[in-house]
Amino acid sequence: xxxxxxxxxxxxxxxxxxxxxxxxxxxxxxxxxxxxxxxxxxxxxxxxxxxxxxxxxxxxxxxxxxxxxxxxxxxxxxxxxxxxxxxxxxxxxxxxxxxxxxxxxxxxxxxxxxxxxxxxxx
Length: 122
Known about the structure:
Zincin-like; alpha+beta; 3 strands; 5 helices
């Protein structure tokens, strides 16, 4: 089982951010990416209704999708939280953890761009 320490996990998240294609990364503005150990009860409640009870929440997008914004929306940064505990639990090697962090980051960025879960590959 992969067990990335907080420092290792933060490094993997930084690598994932650095690996985003420039044309894609340049479109992301005012988004903070954070590392949290576990999702909160509120995070779990806001999860998709069709998610299995056995499914781990690996990350979450907290914000207003670009497609839903109006000129009146505040300029607070959006947030993408990646959850170290669940990602450690669903992966069994550092390489798989790195891949999962990147996939989860891209998935949550999809929500930032206004894509629903159904519109994104799983």
